[in-house]
Task: inverse folding
């Protein structure tokens, strides 16, 4: 299952070939928790970059909502792993996500004004689409703890909303 | 003696309510797991809609070119309906959330 996820990530050019050479086993709950939490933190980082660079009202409103929502979901996730006594476990998928997001931030840091806004919005569409796909096809089906599964399902609905919101922002920038 | 008196009081109250034209109501909409329930509501001008957000994230009830109500996480927010007509609303933050209000004149 991790291979499928990695393939999805690679499809939009987020992963190196080296990162693809990983185990075929389904991710465990500690790994799933780590991947979901990391995905949220990375989107918060992206939003903070947008807030420091963009002057566009819609882009800023979107970024502010990303900070709020992902912070809320991740605090819920932290409370849950604490309650379940699960220690989130770093893994290749989390590392690949982090690497890709770091590279994307570096790329976006060179852009300004409308060029930045467009690139940020387009990446938010692609990023949420990838993470939502991973949640739907891999992370949610693989989660064994019902509370973790339920939080991921709620997260998916929230992030599907973000994807639509990002699509609207991106379309308005065209 | 008491039951009889209660009945008289009851009758007067009911009669009194009946004579008031179109009493304003409060209509509750619950937001849970990114769903407005009920999704469609019928109301009349003067009624209040109260959205009760049970989610961990903030939502809005927004009509394009119309009202925009912010509903914080785990809080409620209200709106008094002032115009007749049917409107579709959605959440600005999560446009996959949709609802509809049909407002009849008072």
Result:
């Amino acid at each position: 299952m991790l291979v499928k996820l990695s393939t999805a990530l690679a499809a939009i050019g987020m992963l190196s070939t080296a990162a693809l050479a990983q185990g075929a086993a389904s991710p465990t709950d500690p790994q799933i928790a780590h991947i979901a939490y990391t995905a949220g933190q990375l989107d918060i980082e992206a939003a903070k970059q947008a807030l420091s660079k963009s002057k566009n009202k819609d882009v800023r409103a979107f970024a502010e909502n990303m900070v709020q929502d992902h912070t809320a979901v991740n605090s819920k996730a932290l409370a849950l792993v604490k309650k379940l006594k699960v220690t989130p476990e770093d893994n290749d998928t989390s590392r690949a996500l982090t690497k890709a997001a770091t590279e994307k931030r570096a790329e976006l840091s060179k852009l300004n004004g409308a060029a930045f806004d467009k690139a940020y919005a387009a990446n938010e569409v692609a990023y949420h689409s990838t993470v939502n796909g991973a949640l739907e096809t891999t992370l949610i089906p693989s989660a064994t703890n019902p509370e973790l599964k339920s939080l991921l399902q709620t997260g998916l609905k929230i992030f599907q909303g973000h994807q639509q919101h990002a699509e609207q922002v991106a379309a308005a920038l065209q | 003696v008491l039951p009889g008196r209660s009945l008289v009081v009851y009758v007067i109250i009911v009669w009194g309510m009946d004579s008031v034209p179109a009493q304003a109501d409060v209509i509750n909409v619950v937001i849970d797991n990114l769903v407005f329930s009920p999704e469609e509501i019928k109301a009349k001008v003067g009624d209040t809609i109260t959205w009760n957000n049970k989610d961990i994230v903030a939502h809005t009830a927004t009509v394009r070119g119309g009202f925009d109500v912010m509903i914080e996480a785990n809080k409620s927010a209200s709106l008094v309906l002032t115009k007749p007509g049917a409107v579709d609303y959605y959440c600005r933050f999560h446009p996959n959330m949709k609802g509809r209000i049909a407002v009849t004149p008072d």
About this structure: The radius of gyration of chain A is 16 Å. Helices of chain A lie at 2-11, 17-20, 29-53, 57-84, 92-109, 113-142, 146-173. Chain A has seven helices and no strands.
